[in-house]
Amino acid sequence: MDKNIVFVINTSEITAGTRGASLGPNAIMTAARKKGSFIFGEHPTEKLECVNDLLDKASPHQYAKRIDGLVNVYEMLDSKVSSLLMNNKFPLILAADHGSAGGTIAGIKSAFPNKRLGVVWIDAHADIHTPFTTPSGNMHGMPLATALGIDNLECKTNEVPQDTLSFWNQLKHIGGISPKISSEDLVYIAVRDTEEQEDTVLSRLNIRNHKVADVRTKGMSEILKAIDEQLKDCDCIYVSFDVDSMDPDLTSHGTGTPVKDGLTPEEAKEILTHFAKMDKTVCMEIVEVNPCLDEKKNTMAEITLDLVESITETLKK
């Protein structure tokens, strides 16, 4: 059944540590035009207001850089995603960096406040830091902590000023619901680059990570079956895909934080189309294509376009 796809384009890149991810969504569109694909003409496209002007000024928030602007991004996503879902649309989000994904989750919960939400996070990184634990202050490492409503105080390494904490608490409560997900309804695929504080939180919350080695030894069908079983009691599912989940030697280094030994593009496609087939899946997001870092011209965007096309073809069946 056609899921009424709407592309949501979010070019704000204020949560990353490198520049250029704001060009990622347009690089994917450029790859489509080069290929002769009309995918972006066949479905409605809605663009969020860009707040990248904040990158032209220093952020006063050492442990949560540009968190004030991220509150606005969360609010825009909360409004846009919830509106689309309540009008029986399927948001397929192309975003610059992963830090905004907490706003996507907020929008899903705003649309379905009484539904249990499962999250499939496909990424090289766990993205579960907080201002209390972050080594960099970059907020693309924190979206899942906002969705889980946690501070990770057990692993505290930073003394966070009150004005930063005020914005942090706003992020956690965007949409008026906190927490938005529970740790038992969160599952990772391909996470392989974490800090000690994150490892402690993952262990304490017993969050499952299906490593790339597991995919190879157990087989993809077994991994997907295990995830389906874990999320069977969820009413709806959100899939968030960071292109750095893939192996840069098999794609390119056209992403902000590439990590070796990742998924193949074929494995990524199998995962994404599996969840696109599921009636429970209500929203999917693809992030972190950065053409400024691509040593193979626009290869990462071209590979990502192939994934997007596969997702849309599956959603339309």
UniProtKB/TrEMBL annotation:
<feature type="binding site">
    <location>
        <position position="98"/>
    </location>
    <ligand>
        <name>Mn(2+)</name>
    </ligand>
</feature>
<dbReference type="GO" id="GO:0005829">
    <property type="term" value="C:cytosol"/>
</dbReference>
<dbReference type="GO" id="GO:0030145">
    <property type="term" value="F:manganese ion binding"/>
</dbReference>
<keyword id="KW-0464">Manganese</keyword>
<feature type="binding site">
    <location>
        <position position="125"/>
    </location>
    <ligand>
        <name>Mn(2+)</name>
    </ligand>
</feature>
<keyword id="KW-0056">Arginine metabolism</keyword>
<dbReference type="Pfam" id="PF00491">
    <property type="entry name" value="Arginase"/>
</dbReference>
<comment type="pathway">
    <text>Nitrogen metabolism; urea cycle; L-ornithine and urea from L-arginine: step 1/1.</text>
</comment>
<protein>
    <recommendedName>
        <fullName>Arginase</fullName>
        <ecNumber>3.5.3.1</ecNumber>
    </recommendedName>
</protein>
<keyword id="KW-0479">Metal-binding</keyword>
<feature type="binding site">
    <location>
        <position position="242"/>
    </location>
    <ligand>
        <name>Mn(2+)</name>
    </ligand>
</feature>
<keyword id="KW-0378">Hydrolase</keyword>
<dbReference type="InterPro" id="IPR006035">
    <property type="entry name" value="Ureohydrolase"/>
</dbReference>
<dbReference type="InterPro" id="IPR023696">
    <property type="entry name" value="Ureohydrolase_dom_sf"/>
</dbReference>
<feature type="binding site">
    <location>
        <position position="244"/>
    </location>
    <ligand>
        <name>Mn(2+)</name>
    </ligand>
</feature>
<dbReference type="GO" id="GO:0004053">
    <property type="term" value="F:arginase activity"/>
</dbReference>
<dbReference type="InterPro" id="IPR014033">
    <property type="entry name" value="Arginase"/>
</dbReference>
<dbReference type="GO" id="GO:0006525">
    <property type="term" value="P:arginine metabolic process"/>
</dbReference>
<comment type="similarity">
    <text>Belongs to the arginase family.</text>
</comment>
<feature type="binding site">
    <location>
        <position position="127"/>
    </location>
    <ligand>
        <name>Mn(2+)</name>
    </ligand>
</feature>
<feature type="binding site">
    <location>
        <position position="123"/>
    </location>
    <ligand>
        <name>Mn(2+)</name>
    </ligand>
</feature>
